[in-house]
Design brief:
Blueprint: E1 3-6, E2 12-14, H1 21-27, E3 30-31, E4 45-50, E5 53-55, H2 66-70, E6 73-75, E7 79-81, E8 85-88, E9 95-96, H3 99-122, H4 136-142
Parallel strand pairs: 1-8
Antiparallel strand pairs: 1-2, 3-9, 4-6, 4-8, 5-7
This protein binds FE2/S2 (inorganic) cluster.
């Protein structure tokens, strides 16, 4: 479950798998200036500070140039994070327009983090099972 962090203000938003950054932010009650929401106007560009993403559909070269792709420019309406990402908006701040949705998203993120922590604790790699308590005498009697 990817998390998007906003740099430098620190808001954190939990995304569903396959969800675009823009869709996740809006679903969580946040907004910033965007245009078409379809990968055509380039208004939703941000800088990807950390993490990787892919585009859910091809993005035209006149919307994101090769230099921008190399500079980690991110078209949020098409970008799907591959894991946790950190983005920085260009020339504006993220606005909280629906605190109730933000609260729901924060709870979903906390549940996902708790689930991931419990899975990691239960993993055989994280906690090796206790060694079998067998003595040579016991082995003899079992054979
Ligand atoms: S909103 Fe137009 S390209 Fe993202």
């Amino acid at each position: 479950m990817p998390t998007v962090t906003i740099d430098p203000t620190g808001e954190r938003v939990h995304l569903d798998p396959g969800e675009t950054i823009l869709a996740g932010l809006y679903k969580a009650g946040y907004a910033f200036t965007v245009g078409c929401r379809r990968g055509g106007c380039a208004i939703c560009k941000v800088d990807a500070v950390a993490g990787t993403f892919t585009y859910n559909r091809p993005v035209a070269d006149n919307v994101i140039t090769d230099e921008e792709r190399a500079d980690h420019t991110c078209l949020t309406c098409r970008a799907v994070p591959e894991g946790d990402v950190t983005i920085r908006l260009r020339g504006e701040t993220l606005r909280l327009v629906n605190p109730f949705l933000a609260q729901l998203n924060a709870r979903a993120r906390q549940r996902a983090e708790a689930y991931a922590a419990s899975r990691a604790a239960a993993s055989p790699d994280a906690t090796p099972p206790p060694a079998a308590d067998t003595t040579p005498a016991e082995r003899t009697t079992k054979e």
